[in-house]
Amino acid sequence: MATPHSQTLSLYLLSLSFVVIIPGLQAHIGEYDDYWRERELQAKRNLEKEYHPNPEEVTKHFNDHVARTLLGFGADNNNNITGRELRSMRKKSAISSCKATNPIDQCWRCNPNWEKDRKRLADCILGFGRNTTGGKNGPIYVVTDPSDDLLNPAQGTLRHAVTKDGPLWIIFSRSMIIKLKEELLMTSDKTIDARGANVHVAYGAGLTIQFMNNVIIHNLHIHHILPGNGGLIKDGENHIGLRTRSDGDGISIFGSTNIWLDHLSIYKCSDGIIDIIQGSTAITISNCHITDHNDVMLFGASDSYTPDEKMQVTVAFTRFGKNLVQRMPRIRFGFVHVVNNDYTYWNMYAIGGSCHPTIISQGNRFRAPRNIAAKEVLKREFTNPEVWKHWDWSSEGDVLLNGAIFIESGDPSASKKYGVEKMLQFKTGQMVPILVEFSGQLVCSPGKPC
Ligand SMILES: *[C@@H]1O[C@H](CO)[C@@H](O)[C@H](O)[C@H]1NC(C)=O
Ligand SMILES: *[C@@H]1O[C@H](CO)[C@@H](O)[C@H](O)[C@H]1NC(C)=O
């Protein structure tokens, strides 16, 4: 009797004679069959649906939550924060039993029973990804086995979990290193929740979120990600697809919507750390810790791909740590709220872009490198000032250290639209050490606040 797997394979071989092979397409889809055509069509509908016509409503909502958290820490709306006050606030946050210091974390980390209420996490998202639910409406799936099989993944492996149909909340029975033989092709409505274990996706291929909707990835280490050779890879419960080479991105988001990446520690990937391209929107990246990398985040990969006008991303509470070079992020088209992040170092620049993106930078801390030629936070790529002076790139409440320079452009009142009045009077960038204190992967034990 044929196994479901060999049925799929023979179906695949049968259909191979009818499919169009699209060479060199960045989609890395080697066999563009009905399954992927349908996923692409759905993704195009999702882009229209999930694009928010009033981004200022989302940025204001975000800033409002941060302001309330900081007031809870004893900040005063009218006072400046001195170094001494800052230190005493940090102490306060460190000695209290709950160490959640920003509004996303405060939503769940103080609960000692977080393990019994894992899905609570899905109610904690702020920013453009806030409608993401991941696997909230599905059962729990426990990964017990770090092994990987591309065509017929065993029950209890990560690849088996992420290719199942329907919503699934994926957790881990123990700490493990998962070395992916080729890219992990996820399907819609999944949460990967590695709290309570120390899980590394490393020394192999990375995660691919392509033509799909609704995923949460939480509390993983992702590092030493290598390019893949492609070939046949299971990419759905009843489907195996043919892939071309993968680039070696940590997380590649391609034509996908409603994504939340939180508390990830990512470093040393061959290509990008996180790419968001080809019509993706409704995305929040928060509480991540990123180090040791050249091209960090690419949002929009093509000058001719104008659907990226609808790309909306929040980057928040993230620590851009040691040995980073550029693209934190680098943006084409689209609208990006870069808020309350700590930029501790860059080699070339921090934030850049082309093709008139909107960049709202609020309450970040930018520490320039020593190199006198690299003091500018921003880089406008391949564009002369006559053109870029019309791009809305604004700074509000940012703290510029070590000679960092932020040259704004566009409508000088633009930032007012994006919730300045919701920010506190003082420079919220000063609060960044508190807001990002627990960025990256967290060590959480059942029965204790995380
Ligand atoms: C407090 O804020 C005001 C206005 O922003 C500024 O002029 C002053 O130097 C600040 N004082 C301190 C102690 O930082
Ligand atoms: C989230 O869902 C609400 C209700 O459907 C919708 O109005 C909003 O545009 C969606 N997106 C964001 C980013 O809030």
From TrEMBL:
Residues 1-27 form the signal peptide. Pathway: Glycan metabolism; pectin degradation; 2-dehydro-3-deoxy-D-gluconate from pectin: step 2/5. This is Pectate lyase. It catalyses: Eliminative cleavage of (1->4)-alpha-D-galacturonan to give oligosaccharides with 4-deoxy-alpha-D-galact-4-enuronosyl groups at their non-reducing ends. It holds the Pfam family Pec_lyase_N. Belongs to the polysaccharide lyase 1 family. It comes from Hibiscus sabdariffa (roselle). The keyword Metal-binding applies. InterPro entries: AmbAllergen (IPR018082), Pec_lyase (IPR002022), Pec_lyase_N (IPR007524), Pectin_lyas_fold (IPR012334), Pectin_lyase_fold/virulence (IPR011050), PEL (IPR045032). Binds 1 Ca(2+) ion. Required for its activity. Its EC number is 4.2.2.2. Keywords: Calcium, Glycoprotein, Lyase, Metal-binding, Signal. The keyword Metal-binding applies. Residues 175-372 form the Pectate lyase domain. Its cofactor is Ca(2+).
